[in-house]
Amino acid sequence: MSVALNIDHANAPRPDTSGPVSLVGLSKSEIAARLGAMGLSERDSRMRASQLWNWIYVNGVTEFDAMNNIAKRLRADLAQAFVIDRPEIVSEQISIDGTRKWLFRFRDPSQPNMPPVEVETVYIPESDRGTLCVSSQVGCTLTCSFCHTGTQKLVRNLTAGEILAQVMMARARLGDFPGGTRPTDGLVPSGDTRAITNIVMMGMGEPLYNYENVKKALLIASDGAGLSLSKRRITLSTSGVVPQIEPTGREIGVMLAISLHAVRNDLRDVLVPINKKWPLEQLLEACRTYPGVSNAKRITFEYVMLKDINDSDADARELVRLLAKIPAKINLIPFNPWPGSNYVCSDWDRIEAFADIVNRAGYASPVRTPRGRDIFAACGQLKSETERLKKKDRDAFLL
Ligand code: SAH
Ligand code: SF4
């Protein structure tokens, strides 16, 4: 029987495992359950799971041998059954503005025969913070007409472990774990600030089409006994998967960003085609009722500036009118071109005029400075070379 690799199957459990299991991405209770299956008592399983959690997420340890509060024999057993998996770095590029882009290659240790996949992760340093832009899928099922990732078909969803491993690897590269060394080029925040203070799910893919894995990864990233990133410093961006917006607020509780980009349905149908399924009225209603939304926890509305497409004064006024009753921030993103793109970025004067209208309505600093354009790391420029599996390979793996 052959099965097509569509969105549903991209989420399906993969065939039975044959290699060690990666601990990164398992919840603490899942780790405890696996330890129980190895013969540890319930109490020991819980205690060891907490120790492993600390070694992995607080100390950034990748070898069981370094875990000096765990007996040698147990360490050896753990090393037989598990790995603390990190991706391979295919490339690391540094922009003249300090932005870094990594191409990571993931192999599933328990599925040695599955082909690897590659994803891009971007680090954007500022003087007082460092933001990591994390991918949720390899490619995207959606086809927003101005987005480079949208030209790459979905290869597969990333697992929770692979989403987290991007954070772990970036932290390791930036010397963000105890005993690590900061890069000496001065392009990470200074002082005691961690190199990575914020996470944005704005890399490749639509996070709400990989909801369960994204939820699991973000709950682990915000766990106070682990990576301990505040939920207020984690932002999930969606093109508008309306039914998943309420669960995102209720179950994950992170900040929300909406890729709005147009204020009329006819235009949004073209720019962000998911609008045909969930039009503006439904999207904005989901925002008005987003669990936890308040003036202190505003929703960010992203709006890409496309010359002569969505950048008129009338568009700006309509934008302000549409968002009037929603606690909102507006982020105007100058369009970042990519090879073969059909759009042009609005002229700077036009962006300023548009921003002025938005500003006068009370939204501060609405224009996002493009970062890392020289290394193709800016919004919407990410695309990996991992091809959608050829039908022959797909059948072989999903039989
Ligand atoms: N898929 C999710 C998150 C990733 S995209 C989403 O669409 O929200 C992150 C942001 O960059 C989105 O607002 C997206 O619309 C925007 N973007 C995509 N291509 C762009 C481009 N070429 N120039 C500027 N912004 C772009
Ligand atoms: Fe996918 Fe987001 Fe790009 Fe649209 S903008 S194609 S949803 S990654």
From TrEMBL:
Q: Name one GO cellular component term.
A: cytoplasm
Which amino acid positions bind S-adenosyl-L-methionine, per UniProt?
205-206, 237, 259-261, 336
Q: Which UniProt keywords apply?
A: 4Fe-4S, Cytoplasm, Disulfide bond, Iron, Iron-sulfur, Metal-binding, Methyltransferase, rRNA processing, S-adenosyl-L-methionine, Transferase, tRNA processing
Q: List the catalytic residues.
A: 120 (proton acceptor), 379 (s-methylcysteine intermediate)
Q: What compartments host this protein?
A: Cytoplasm
Amino acids binding [4Fe-4S] cluster: 140, 144, 147
Per its Swiss-Prot or TrEMBL entry, what cofactor is needed? [4Fe-4S] cluster
The reaction(s) annotated as catalysed by this protein in its Swiss-Prot or TrEMBL entry are: adenosine(2503) in 23S rRNA + 2 reduced [2Fe-2S]-[ferredoxin] + 2 S-adenosyl-L-methionine = 2-methyladenosine(2503) in 23S rRNA + 5'-deoxyadenosine + L-methionine + 2 oxidized [2Fe-2S]-[ferredoxin] + S-adenosyl-L-homocysteine; adenosine(37) in tRNA + 2 reduced [2Fe-2S]-[ferredoxin] + 2 S-adenosyl-L-methionine = 2-methyladenosine(37) in tRNA + 5'-deoxyadenosine + L-methionine + 2 oxidized [2Fe-2S]-[ferredoxin] + S-adenosyl-L-homocysteine
Is NAD among this UniProt entry's keywords? no
Cofactor binding summary note: Binds 1 [4Fe-4S] cluster. The cluster is coordinated with 3 cysteines and an exchangeable S-adenosyl-L-methionine.
Instruction: Report domain Radical SAM core positions.
Output: 126-374
Which HAMAP family is this protein grouped with?
RNA_methyltr_RlmN
Q: Please state which protein family the record places this protein in.
A: Belongs to the radical SAM superfamily. RlmN family.
Protein name in UniProt: Dual-specificity RNA methyltransferase RlmN
UniProt organism field: Pelagibacterium lentulum
Q: Tell me the lineage of the source organism.
A: Bacteria, Pseudomonadati, Pseudomonadota, Alphaproteobacteria, Hyphomicrobiales
